[in-house]
Amino acid sequence: GYIDYLVGNHGLNSRYTTSAENPLQIYVNDFSGNGNNNAVITYTKDGKTYPSHPRDDLMQQLPGLRKKFLLYHDYANATLHDIFSEEKIKEASSFTVNTMQTSLVINHGNSEWKINPLQVEAQFAPVFGSLINDYDGDGNDDLLLIGNDYSAEVINGRYDAFNGLMLKGNGKGNFLKKASQFNVKGDGKGLVQLLAHDNTPLLIATQNNDQLLTFAVKKGNNDRIIRANSNDAYAIIKLANGASIKKEMYYGSGYLSSSSRYIQIPESATSVEIYSYQGQKRTVLF
After folding, report:
1. Which of 53, 85, 162, 236 sits a CA distance of 20 to 30 A from 186?
2. pTM
3. pLDDT, mean of residues 145-158
4. E strands of 34-126, at which residues?
5. Cα(167)–Cα(141) distance, rounded to whole angstroms?
6. How far apart are alpha carbons 244 and 252 in whole angstroms?
7. How many angstroms separate the CA atoms of 191 and 132, rounded?
8. Mean pLDDT of the chain
């Protein structure tokens, strides 16, 4: 009954890398003393912290540093502590990036959460839109992902290696790439699943400054769909083999998105218990 989460992330296909030994960090402070905060991205090498920004980029934001580092060579060897005073660094808010990987976050209840990165195809670009459902009719949840990011700085180049991705689930927490007609090549952002009048699931993907894309889900039994009431919170699906599945019904999930509130019932299900936000239960038999 513990809910796991699919978490989109920046991916591994960029010049930014991070690890426990060499973390990526961001320091935020009014480094120039003009009343405006500046965010400085840093990386760690051999135990020392260096700015990731080229000299010209940092000097545009903090022109007072030009006299301190007249030569590119001097700036290239400067650590964060060489550039800013200890007082400024201590005053700064700092944030550490632990992982760049799009991952499943597994909920073990009272024990620690476990982060399971998805396979390499899910790390080609930043992931924004995502859905979890059974898209091939085998009774196991699958994953749909869209992404890319065209808003990056020129020095980084835009992140555009993602064409959309379907990952087939085996019901045991493992997902593998599967060929499908689900294809979103642009600057993918929102991804939702709606129901047509005949209960056919429709996938709608948004692309920044580009067309809306719609896909119909052909697999599955459209008669085994339960539309949620406004105060329904979650459902417990009881299977014939004695197992059960918990499904939460969200008001919004993924990147700025809200899908239709319904649950698709597997063929092997015998009953569904639906609980309201007030704890009231109703049962649907199959």
Report:
1. 53
2. 0.90
3. 93
4. 38-45, 48-51, 93-97, 103-106, 114-117
5. 9
6. 24
7. 11
8. 93
Are 261 and 228 within 8 A, CB to CB? yes
Please give the average per-residue pLDDT across 229-238, as a whole number: 97
Residue pLDDT, tens place only, 167-206: 999 988 899 998 888 999 999 999 999 999 889 999 999 9
Q: What is the DSSP string of 89-110?
A: HHHSEEEEE---S-EEEE--TT
Quote the DSSP letter at residue 156. T
Residue 34 zone, left/alpha/beta (φ > 0; ψ -120 to 50; rest): alpha
Dihedral angle over CA of 67, 27, 118, 267, nearest 10 = -140
DSSP secondary-structure letter at 230?
T
148: left (phi over 0), alpha (psi -120 to 50) or beta: left
Tokens of 73: 């060579």
pLDDT of 109 over the 90 cut: no
Helix, strand or coil, per DSSP, at residue 190: strand
- Look-up of token digits 């019932």: 265
Q: How far apart are CA 279 and CA 118, in angstroms?
A: 34
Q: Please give the C-alpha separations between residue 22 and each of 72, 93, 181, in angstroms, as whole numbers.
A: 24, 19, 39
Q: How far apart are CA 262 and CA 275, in angstroms?
A: 13
Which tokens is 126 given?
């930043």
Give tens-digit pLDDT for 235-244: 999 999 999 9
SS3 181: coil
Amino acid, res. 66: R
Q: Are 67 and 54 in contact, with CB atoms under 8 Å apart?
A: no
